[in-house]
Amino acid sequence: xxxxxxxxxxxxxxxxxxxxxxxxxxxxxxxxxxxxxxxxxxxxxxxxxxxxxxxxxxxxxxxxxxxxxxxxxxxxxxxxxxxxxxxxxxxxxxxxxxxxxxxxxxxxxxxxxxxxxxxxxxxxxxxxxxxxxxxxxx
Length: 138
Fold this sequence. Notes:
The chain is of the alpha+beta class.
């Protein structure tokens, strides 16, 4: 069985390091699927779910708030701005962040405040989408 080394790290911690059969994550231009021996690639990633099919068939889910993806034929490295294991996501916090971002969006008086509120809203929506996906798997 062919696998690739996958590492997902943030400034705070290493969230995953292990062998995998497949990795899917949100690139800035769309969803990316990475198998072993993938063509080398470096790209930005947007807020969303990193889905890792591990060598043993188990799945790991990690929320990332954006970052950089590096793909080599034998490995994938995700350098995330912020990352949270799927099982550690808090729905109440995500809902509160969404409400806060929507309020900030409606009150934005500068282009920078508008951009910041839009980014916060995208992160909150991505967290909630991941939570819904994980709940549907139970």
